[in-house]
Design brief:
The protein has 7 helices and 12 strands. The chain has helices spanning 14-31, 88-102, 117-126, 162-173, 177-186, 233-247, 262-271, and strands at 4-9, 49-55, 58-66, 72-79, 107-113, 129-139, 152-156, 192-199, 202-212, 216-224, 252-258, 273-285. The protein has a 12-stranded mixed beta sheet with strand order 1-2-3-4-5-12-6-11-10-9-8-7, sandwiched between helices. Helix 4 (162-173) crosses helix 5 (177-186).
Length: 290
C-alpha cells in the first residue's frame, strides 16, 4: 500500500521547486491549459505558505496561499491528472485552512485558468462564487512614442509620498483607506519598489514594481489621480517605468488587467504588452469548510 505524506514546504531552493515545476508542466500539458501557479514568487523572503502531497517520494498535489491584507487568502493549487477525485485537494485545503484560521483569514480567493475544465468543476463543487477574470500580459516590444506630458518624471517613493499613495490608490481602486493602509503595510518587502509620477512639483500618479530574480519585474498598483485622468499621465508613467526596467536588465516585464477594463487593456497593448493567459477568480468564506 502506498504511503502518503502531506507536508509544508519550508525552503524555496531550486531543488525544492523542481518537483513543483514538473507537476505544473504535467498538469499544463495534460489539461491543455496555460496553468501558472506563480513559481517565480516563491523566494527566500516570500510570505507564501506551500503544502505538498506526496506518495512514494513523488509530488502529486500542491497548494499555496498568501495574503496581502490579513483577511483574504489568495490560493493556487494543482493535483496530478491521474490522481484527481481521490481527496488530495480536499486534504491540502483542510490543512491550509487550519493555518489560515490561526492567521485570522476570513475568505479565500482561488485563481483558476479560464480554460481549465477540472479547475472550474472544483470551484463548482466547493460552492465558490465567481468574482472576476483577468488577463496576464507580458511586455513584447516598446513602441517608441513621445511623452504627451514632457515634464512628466517618475521618482522612487519617499516618506513624504505615502499620504499621496494612500489617497491615489483608494480613489482610483475604490478600496477603503483602512484596507489600503493595511495592504501597503503588508507589501513593503525589499524587492518591491514604488515610483511616483510628477508633473513639475505636482504628484499625478503612482506605480509599483515587484522584482523577481535577475530579469523579471511585475507591475502592479498602477493608478493616476481620478481628477486628472484622461490627460495621458498613465501612458507616460507606464512608458517611463518600462524604459527604466529595461535599462536595469529586466527583460521580462509582466502585469495583469481585469478583462472588463478595456481602457487599461488598450493602453497596455499600445505600450507593447501582449496577452499571454486568462484566469478566473472565485471567492468563498473560509467558514464554509468547517
Amino acid at each position: 500500500m502506498a504511503d502518503y505524506l502531506l507536508t509544508q514546504l519550508t525552503g524555496f531552493s531550486p531543488e525544492a521547486l523542481d518537483p513543483i515545476r514538473e507537476l505544473e508542466r504535467i498538469c499544463r500539458e495534460t489539461d491543455g491549459t496555460d496553468l501558472r501557479i506563480g513559481l517565480d514568487n516563491l523566494t527566500a523572503d516570500s510570505s507564501d505558505r506551500v503544502y505538498l502531497y506526496q506518495t512514494e517520494g513523488r509530488l502529486i498535489g500542491y497548494f499555496s496561499w498568501y495574503s496581502v491584507d490579513g483577511i483574504e487568502a489568495n490560493i493556487s493549487a494543482m493535483v496530478h491528472p491521474q490522481r484527481r477525485r481521490q481527496g488530495i485537494f480536499r486534504a491540502l485545503l483542510e490543512a491550509a485552512a487550519k493555518d489560515m484560521r490561526k492567521q485570522g483569514i476570513q475568505a479565500c480567493r482561488f485563481k483558476v485558468p479560464a480554460d481549465s475544465d477540472a479547475g472550474q468543476h472544483t470551484m463548482e463543487h466547493l460552492g465558490t462564487k465567481f468574482d472576476k477574470s483577468q488577463y496576464a500580459m507580458e511586455f513584447q516590444a516598446l513602441h517608441h512614442e513621445e511623452l504627451r506630458n514632457p515634464n512628466l518624471v517618475i521618482r522612487p517613493e519617499t516618506l513624504e509620498d505615502f499620504g499621496f499613495m494612500v489617497r491615489c490608490s483608494t480613489q482610483a481602486f475604490g478600496d477603503s483607506e483602512e484596507w489600503t493602509l493595511r495592504y501597503f503595510g503588508n507589501t513593503r518587502e525589499p524587492h518591491r519598489h514604488a515610483y511616483i509620477g510628477f508633473d513639475g512639483a505636482e504628484r499625478v500618479g503612482m506605480i509599483r514594481v515587484k522584482l523577481l530574480g535577475s530579469d523579471t519585474a511585475v507591475i502592479h498598483d498602477f493608478c493616476v489621480s481620478p481628477d486628472i485622468q484622461g490627460r495621458g499621465y498613465g501612458r507616460d508613467i507606464l512608458m517611463q517605468t518600462v524604459r527604466l526596467l529595461l535599462s536595469e536588465g529586466r527583460t521580462r516585464i509582466r502585469l495583469s488587467v481585469i478583462t472588463e477594463n478595456r481602457n487599461a487593456l488598450e493602453l497596455y497593448r499600445r505600450i507593447g504588452f501582449g496577452i499571454v493567459s486568462k484566469s478566473d477568480y472565485y471567492i468563498c468564506n473560509l467558514e464554509a469548510w468547517r
